[in-house]
Amino acid sequence: MKLGLAIDIDACVGCHACATACKEWNGESLMAGGAPDYDPQGPVPAGVWFNRVRHFEAGDYPDNRTLNVPMSCMHCEQAECVTVCPTGASYKRAEDGIVLIDPEKCMGCNYCAWACPYGARELDEQQGVMRKCTLCVDRIYDTALPEAERQPACVLACPSHARHFGDYDNPASHVSVLARERQGQSLLASLGYKPVNQYLPPRAQAQIPQPKAPPAPDTLKKRLASMVNTLIRL
Amino acid sequence: MKPALSVIFFTVSSGAGLGLAIWLVLAQWGWAAAGGVPTADQPLLTVAGIVSLVLVIAGLLSSTQHLANPRNAWRSLARVRTSWLSREALCALLWLALAVLHGVLSQQGSSLVPWSGALLLGVSVATVVCTAMIYACLRTVPRWRTWHTPVIYLLHALLAGGLLWALLRAATGAAGGLSNGGLLLSLLALTLTVTLLYEAKFSHRVTATLNEALGVPMQAPAGQVQGRVRLLDTGHAHRTFLTQEFGFVLAREQARRLRSLMVLLTTVLPILLLLLAPPIAPVLAVACVLFLAGALVQRWLFFAQAEHVVRLYHGQSRV
Amino acid sequence: MNPPLTDAADHPVRFEDRSRQRVEHTTCYMCACRCGLQVTLQDDEQPDGSIKTRLRFLQGTAGHPVNDGVLCAKGSAGIQKQLSPAKLTQPLIRRPGTERGQGIFDPISWDEALDLLTGRLARLRSSQPRQLAFFTGRDQMQALTGLWAQQFGTPNWAAHGGFCSVNMAAAGLYSIGYSFWEFGAPDWDHARYFMMWGVAEDHASNPIKIGLEKLKRRGAKFVSVNPVRTGYSSLADEWVPVRPGTDGLLAMAMAHVLLSRELFDAEFLLRYTNAPWLVIEAPGTSRDGLFLRNAQGHPLLWDQQTQAPAIQAPGCAPAMFGRFTAPDGTAVVTAMTLMAERALADEYAPATVASQCGVPAEQIERLALEMAQVAFEQTITLPIRWTDAWGVEHDQVIGRPVAMYAMRGVSAHSNGFQTCRALHLIQMLLGALDGPGNFRARAPFPKPVPPVQLPENDAARIDAPDTACARPLLGFPTRPEDLAIDLRGRPLRIDKAYSWESPIAAHGLMHMVIRNAVEADPYPIDTLMLFMANMAWNSSMNTTGTQQMLVARDPEGQYRIPFIVVCDAFDSETVRYADLVLPDTTYFERFDAISMLDRPISEPDAAADAIRHPLLKPDRDVRPWQDVLIDLAGRLKFPAFVDEQGAPRFAGYEDFIVRYERAPGIGFLSGWRGKDGDQSLVGEPNPDQWQAYIRGKAFHAHHWPDSQKYMRFANREYLEVAARAGFIGKAEPIIMQIYSEPLQKFRLAGQGLYDGPCPERAEDRERLVRYFDPLPMWYPPIEMARTDEQMGAEAFPFHAITQRPMVMYHSWDSQNAWLRQIVAQNALYMNAQTAADLNLADGDWVLVESMHAPVQPQPGTPDHARMNTTEAHRRIRCQLRTMQGCERNTVWTWNAIGKMAGTWGLAKTSAEANAGFLLNHLISETLPARPGEASLTNSDPITGQAAWYDLKVRVRKDPDQTPPPGAAASGTLASIEGGQA
């Protein structure tokens, strides 16, 4: 299996629901190991987030577009973060391609973060180990959850249904179909990491034809003259 | 990239120690060919060996300061098959073992010395190269991913080691001026060339743009997303791990000044000193200090000028 | 190289231990959306063996009418709200000898607090009841708070709608029978064209997110009219950067296009609107502009077949246009003729309005034509049989699938009411209302236009001691007699709602209460009670000024507002100004009814309401405010709350909700009624009702059968059900009002022609004549016009508006540990090209000024608003950010991010307190006065809606570019390349 996400940029309104749902789940997840907050009421509130939403603009006024781009671990096929890790803390599962961190082994050298183009890994300053998206591996395989809830927290939460989860190895899966139909892209594909998460680009602008209608008269008098009664019985 | 002083010190210090070991072994080969170690040079051998060991150990200790969870540092040998950092750790440990072994054998005048020396030289080179490859293998930092990186690391190691060797020779009373002057000058010239080529390569090079990072074309048919991409909001109010680790901003003017300083300290001034000044210990000491200072600046710039592609997602338009 | 792969067996997945968890359902309260919340609770065993329950995970309730399983960032961050250190922990009383605003309190027990409050309120109630002003902010239980105030006998109650978006509510209720805001929703499943006006993150937040994706997926076109392109507008196929305050011009121009191209649904207009009604043309008389009516008072239309006036009935053929003479000689004209004469004038031609609203003429024309194309050439028909209110059977429902939604960008202007009416006009012209693909009604709407409910205006009744008001305190006036004024025409309410100054103030004017009380205009009050209303901060138009007023003293040294009670769950800025603080629970700790009698969670396809119930026990000395209100009601012996012996009738809030009936069978919660809990919408109280809701995942939905889903304003089956359910009085058709006779009556009063009360003051007469146009129209927002008039057109060139960030809308949760990592300070956004023209750069610290005179800083005034009172203008200091997606003449910022230092449990050095800022400091609650003119509220003259988007400012670079301490690093690397070049 090649599990991953499809993220629809033509549906993301930048509400950060995915980022917060992830924080909520993983704050206590036994697989993620926590997502601490530093200085929560203080002047520099910061913390570990596995998913962050960044906002961009493309083009110049008034033809500009606003793009909201959530980014989390892409669970790359060529996961350099795993290749470079000296301790073996960073690992990629053979069965489904999910990239995880074993905090028991991590020495906090940050090398994997240097290898990640997408900023998916953040250091837990309190424990000295790296943290990242687990694709909610402890939700998707948890048979104690109802089947509909065996999804990553971010996918369940997304109010505009801009996040989809599935198996890219299966060409008939929801994410595979979406990626094909919407021409899903990898971010920074030129680096060769083969990220599994696909981003669905904004669709072309919807077009509406002109209606059949008489031309507009050029004076008020003429316009009023065409306001005639037809016989319509109620 | 945020320059971490512990890592900068580590690479310069161990590089110097490893380079010194290389010169030491080469000298031993020279002596062996000439019939044996001159008694006058025995103290040099010992001092150089100790200095080399101390520099490498100091460097390695410094490098562990960089770890957020050092109790797992011992695990860094686990992924030699894929990780340059793992390989570097292995080489460093091998080097320590070999250095001690070679040192003992050298003191004993054993016949195995040429062999242990060869191994030590090989592992010294390997360690330097592995260290450099930790950075050069990363596709995420274009400024590191170039053949110049391991070459410059090796050249610096050889120069630092060579200047130290010359200094120690002079300080322990060896006769006859510089034994490796010609080699040093060639290495300095080579270093100057490679450094200038490196800076020229990256002065205007663009590996990726923010547009590419998000897959937005500059131009597209009407009705589709297109045009220059700019950051509107990073989605966080304050710092993150990423902004701290990768957000270092070096002003252009300051970078220029530091590059000039680096070239001056690591090549121009040592060349001038070697050509124009007498090869006495004080002069060689100055040359060492200048070079090592320059090497620290080079290493600082190596990190400070390095731009990680994740900066694109923080609003930088080109990396 | 390929990364090494690891067998899963080497690292077995560790799943969550669910042995001590359980799942409950309730309703979220982070904003006004009321999403269904599925809560995973964890029952942790404590060392002493006791069990402490806490929140483990929050997610959306699957199948819920509002959110169907999704949850936004605020909802998921509810855990941090529950854990917030800013929670109030016990009742507090201001320490004697200290000043209001210092925030020095002593703890007090609930018994003492309630005895104190009861004593004071009892004295007021038995002497001058109107001396109590009770205003609520973001409360969602107005059915209870309004009833309480009515029972007390004071007219001085409202929630925050007058400050927020009453223009949308009122315009809809006076035009189409339901409204944008909360009483309708777009049909996301069938719409083929969706136009969104002035909507940022707003009411119905998750449903809009769910809906927009559906639209995009179905290939519908989404157009966003908004000066800023963020949030929802990111997804728009077309972004129309309109100049703030000119949406009405744009709308009227679109109506012009539709009419001039003969693109309107004649049948819809004739059948369902008052387009054919006959308007009397008798200038100078008291009948001018009123409808021609028969002896029974029914309005008349002109039947083309009989060439005579007639009432609407099957078989008649009304004339859409024309001037006629009634049998008694009265000259009459159809309403539609008047509408056409107005809309078709050159004044509203696209070419005329283009430069003023900033939208090119060809674009205006194209957008109108696109809507028409979709409405008339992409018509939907659903094979649904239904019967209309006149008994005619139809075998299909026609959908003209153009939907609209509009909110604050239209509302928060002094022309918002008429602008919104112009939007409804477009919908009526297209026949695009409550059909498939349209903006559709949500139960209990549609209601008659306007709803049949008049506000209490009997001065004798109000002033009678120990007497409840007879009518509800908020309502919908239809004529001058309905105003809440005394015999001399002066306002009966402290906020002057329903006076000549704000006749149709359907939601009151919360933003005027403090000023009016301090000025004793119309009269002073004794006690101000505030619930969840942050009046000393972001819920005021003139923040520093309001703070000053709260501590203002009379010549004898007494506070002009003698007693202030603040009820809230968290330590807000307003808590500082209280004399008595009554701490509320969080939404996880109490019962709530999101009631069909108020603003329920209905969707177009289902009438729905919801509850909250306690999932956690409060660990501090707090009480749910509803329980406190009912307790007070019992102590004060409100008639509805005590029995014949004067003993409390209800045991508490839960009992009250179940057993209180507004009319037989009509109660707060519409589900599981009847003795057996098997009736919905109407039925006897069911003692098990709360449990039924709890079992039902905290909500109840009554799904409309297909035959009752559409055209409900004229759907006989639906109207009959609605009458039985108490939504409407009688099962009669609800005719939409293009021409609003109530407005015309007020206009006649302004002209001195009305056969009844007329205003005395010239200012009031002028406003009624100018603004109370019975037909939609556009006029320049009042403060904008006066700023240009008094200061010069380019003196304050920027429109200054705000919007809500999606992560904090309505929850203002800067105390939220997670959400404040996303937004902790705000900047002023400006168009990048505009900034470049002014030599301003991204990141510059700037000074922003409005025309109003500075206000003396108060102890809590933050540095960015410390104005030098010797200068001419109000000023704040903030950071500038540039962007592309901002209209060239507009600057904007996020609302309510700035906080007062020391509040909300945040460190005094927080960015919120030091670099975050409120635009509110620049706004004035009164209009710039003309010479000799009485002080007028800076609000829409029709509804009293606070017009805070009318603000005009100027922006210049501060010579001192030092950032304030605590300002967050901008977090962007754009600066290394010289900013947004």
Structural account:
The complex is a heterotrimer of chains A (234), B (319) and C (981). Chain A is α+β, with helices and mostly antiparallel strands and 234 residues long. Chain A has a single domain (3-200), classed as 2-Layer Sandwich (Alpha-Beta Plaits), CATH 3.30.70. In chain A, 18% of the residues lie in helices and 19% in strands. Chain A contains seven helices and eleven strands. Chain A has helices at residues 17-26, 80-84, 111-115, 137-140, 153-157, 174-181, 220-225, and strands at residues 3-8, 37-38, 46-47, 52-58, 65-71, 90-93, 99-101, 122-124, 129-131, 163-167, 198-200. A three-stranded mixed sheet of chain A has the order 10-1-11. A two-stranded antiparallel sheet of chain A has the order 2-3. In chain A, strands 4-5 form a two-stranded antiparallel ribbon. In chain A, strand 4 and strand 5 (65-71) form a beta hairpin. The relative contact order of chain A is 0.21. Helix content of chain B is 66%, strand content 2%. In chain B, helix 2 (42-64) packs across helix 5 and helix 3 (84-108) packs antiparallel against helix 4 (113-136). Chain B has one domain (5-314): Formate dehydrogenase/DMSO reductase fold, CATH 1.20.1630. Chain B is built from ten helices and one strand, in the order H-H-H-H-H-H-H-E-H-H-H. Chain B is mostly helical and 319 residues long. Chain C is of the alpha/beta class. Chain C folds into four domains: 92-158 and 453-583, Rossmann fold (3-Layer(aba) Sandwich); 168-448 and 736-740, 3-Layer(aba) Sandwich (Dimethylsulfoxide Reductase, domain 2); 741-774, no CATH class; 782-957, Barwin-like endoglucanases (Beta Barrel), CATH 2.40.40. Chain C has 27 helices and 37 strands. The longest helix of chain C has 17 residues, at 361-377. Chain C is globular and about 90 Å long. The two termini of chain C are 39 Å apart. The model of chain C is unreliable at 974-981 (pLDDT under 50). Classes of the chains: A alpha+beta (234), B mainly alpha (319), C alpha/beta (981). At the A-C interface, helix 1, strand 3, strand 5, helix 2 and strand 6 of A face strand 1, strand 4, helix 1, helix 7 and helix 8 of C.
